[in-house]
Write a structure and sequence with these properties.
This protein has 370 residues and is α/β, with parallel strands linked by helices. It is 33% helix and 25% strand. The structure holds nicotinamide-adenine-dinucleotide.
């Protein structure tokens, strides 16, 4: 396949990231099919036309079903709010398209199961927007774990914090509605869970508590509306590899902008990482001479592929959008039948299973098997 026809549904925060990725993947990697930006869908014809022009798409529509029916579209990027993912992804798969869908996979577990079944039936490639597993630094951390650099990991600690909901006067919007899911648990939790799946495999047992810091939020039109989602979640975990774990999630954490802090404790060392410093990680090895033991900072560089495809100079740094370009390239590799590092709908269902087990644990106040 020399070219691949792309459809993009939704052009907000993530829609632009997907558009940048589809535009950038060929110049960066120089291999695989050349993406042809065929069709873009938004809520209104005007917005769709404006974004199609800005992002370089040939056609625009306010009807996402017309995009899916377009015979020139081979792969569909779904970047709409969570409540739309299942319907759009299943329709695209049934129309014979590959799907790149933003996280979380779906709101209800039943929808996620239907998505995984539709993917299986279609034989098409699916990828979820678990961009943080694409960081070249994360690949290096996985190599270190495989090489036993810190020994078997016995405890992991993940924190994901941002402050976009920290202000009690931040307006009510779709992430405050129950139709978007549980709140921090699925909006954020799926990212650390994707890293755990990538680094160690799955989660076995969980005990969770969800919290709602503000009971209501202002509406744009005046008045206030009761918040329906939990902006804070705290989870104890037993991983399938035997390690214990803690996951703390907070969308109302003043001062935290994009923190995904990860600490992996092994019997002979520790690895620490924070997404706010995504071009570095810290390694502590107890095998170092006693007088010079301490955390060393490893900076990302061309030695950590595919960093080299972006810039030849070490320490200059990649950004969030580069992770999306790598994710897009992995998707294209999978479509081309090559081994690829993506979390598709089948593996994504395991992440959903963990999230819903955590919600059940909160409801019932007990440990729940995933
Ligand atoms: N991978 C990540 O790190 C990451 C980060 C942020 C958001 N997300 C996910 O991306 C998705 C979108 O979030 P966002 O922050 O980009 O939201 P957003 O509100 O910025 O953008 C959503 C867009 O979808 C459009 N839209 C809504 N309904 C539509 C429809 N029926 N047809 C066509 N377009 C429609 C909206 O007009 C809007 O432009 C969510 O599922 C979210 O969880 C992922």
């Amino acid at each position: 396949m020399k070219q691949i026809g792309v459809g993009l549904i939704g052009t907000g925060y993530m829609g632009k990231c997907h558009a940048l990725a589809w535009n950038g993947v060929r110049p960066v990697f120089g291999d695989g099919p050349r993406p042809r930006l065929v069709h873009l869908a938004e809520v209104s014809a005007e917005l769709a036309a404006e974004r199609a022009d800005a992002f370089g798409f040939a056609r625009a529509t306010s009807d996402w079903r017309a995009l899916i029916a377009d015979p020139e579209v081979d792969v569909v990027s779904i970047t709409t709010p969570n409540a739309f993912h299942a319907e759009m992804a299943i329709a695209a798969l049934e129309a014979g398209k590959h799907v790149w869908c933003e996280k979380p996979m779906a709101v209800g577990f039943g929808d996620a199961e239907r998505m995984a079944a539709a993917a299986h039936r279609s034989g098409k490639v699916t990828a979820l927007g678990y961009n943080y597993i694409q960081n070249p630094v994360m690949r290096q951390i996985r190599r270190l774990l495989e090489d036993g650099a810190i020994g078997a990991v016995n405890h992991v600690r993940f924190e994901m914090d941002e402050d976009f909901m920290a202000d009690p006067e931040a307006p009510f919007y779709w992430k405050s509605e129950a139709s978007s899911g549980y709140g921090a648990l699925d909006d954020f939790g799926v990212h650390p869970l994707s890293l755990m799946q990538f680094l160690f495999g799955g989660v076995g047992r969980v005990m969770a508590q969800l919290a709602m810091p503000y009971a209501d939020r202002p509406l744009g039109a005046g008045g206030r509306r009761a918040v329906e989602t939990w902006d804070i979640a705290s989870v104890l975990m037993e991983l399938r590899n035997g390690a214990s774990g803690v996951m703390a999630l907070n969308r109302s954490a003043w001062g935290r902008k994009g923190r995904i802090a990860m600490q992996l404790f092994g019997w002979k060392g520790t690895i620490a990482y924070d997404q706010e410093r995504m071009n570095e990680f810290q390694l502590y090895r107890s095998e170092d001479p006693a007088g010079s033991q301490g955390f060393r900072t490893v900076l990302a560089g061309p030695v950590h592929p595919p960093y080299d495809r972006f810039i030849p100079a070490p320490g200059h740094g990649l950004g969030f959008n580069e992770l999306k370009i790598i994710e897009c390239h992995e998707l294209l590799r999978a479509i081309g039948g090559e081994p690829a590092q993506i979390i598709g709908f089948a593996a994504g269902l395991e992440i959903e299973r963990a999230v819903h087990a955590m919600a059940e644990s909160h409801r019932e106040g007990r440990w729940v098997e995933v």
